[in-house]
């Protein structure tokens, strides 16, 4: 297993395998960022490009939704109206730690701060989730894709009611 904290200096010969691992790391990082950008810009084609054709979704922690295995198209079509119900969102993904099980499977653990803004007449217009993603990646013919997305919410601030309204 190779971890993302290993550097080029840890590998005496920067041969093909080491260069490929660096490229894999960059590609997986790019998928994580496309995930956030697609969500916040409502670019659902970009968001869809992050996933394998079937994806396991685990938002059970903090949201009470059961773990589900769904087609990526269904996941995107279900996510879009929820995210579009907010006036604005901002998903910041940082501190990516990528581990490789083999050449075609990796896990990326990344911090997330997901802010949601929805003006309303019942209180605070903002709700923020602080936590991390533990996403399972697979190499496909189209590049690295998320096969399993898991959000672990560590804490939340603001009006959770605006998020509950978006889930309805």
Automatic annotation (TrEMBL):
Tell me the ranges covered by the SnoaL-like domain, including all copies: 20-149
What is this protein's name? Polyketide cyclase
